[in-house]
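Hey,
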Amino acid sequence: MSLKQLAIIGPTASGKSDLGIKIAKEVNAYILSIDSLSIYKEIDIVSAKPSKEELREVKHFGIDEIWPDEHFSVEIFIRLYQEVVQKCQEDGKNLIIVGGTSFYLKSLLDGLSPLPKITQETQKRVEEKLKNLSLVYEELLQKDPAYMQKIKPNDRYRIEKALLIYEASGITPSKWFAVNPAKPIITNLPIYNIDVEREVLRERIAQRTQKMYDMELIDEVCYLEQKYTRAPNSMKAIGIVEVLDYLDARTDKEEMLGLITTHTAQLAKRQQTFNRSQFANITHAKLEDLEELILQNF
């Protein structure tokens, strides 16, 4: 059979996961999650992952793929997507991409530029230079200010990538990407965005925050901090930082829950803006109308 694909996106707490599972059952599909927290093992309550029962109902990818102290990137996500597509083809399944981190979806549509061939000698040279990260950053900033201004001085991963490109190709990252433009990974992907009123969404977010608390959110964050410390990027997520402030006695319980709700609502607003501005082939509809709409057009 020919693999069919579609994407269901929307702001956090809009009902994407439940809808994705319903559709997947109807159209014989696997699900690829695009959620920046669900990718991590052991971050379960904060990420509001589908339940173990739901994960058994439909095979999911992009959930529990890496540990909280491991690095994740667009390149890794695209490789994961390609592996999932191959698995779907082997198993005779369709694919539904579901989640709130639409940046990853856009990366599939826009693609990535190929990197220059990196030899072991180049890799060793770069590793040696990276021992002085601030110096490397300043040198790259002088050579390619347009590219490096988008990168924070402590972002070792992206600084290393920029240095590898420069050392391997002999030209700045900006020139490299101009000569080697990105190619789409996927084309003609139907995208469905869940439209939800802001007031309704905020109420759902507040209810979900309380549910997370009732599910022992604080215990989960304590466990994560003890095992991984506060250093990994995953430990800076909404829902984790507010609990850490509570544990530091900077807030009380009600303030903590209020801050999680507010910060999640702010994230949802950014997601809605992104979804409305970044995609061409997209259908916007209310949650209650989407199931029928998707099945009619599948």
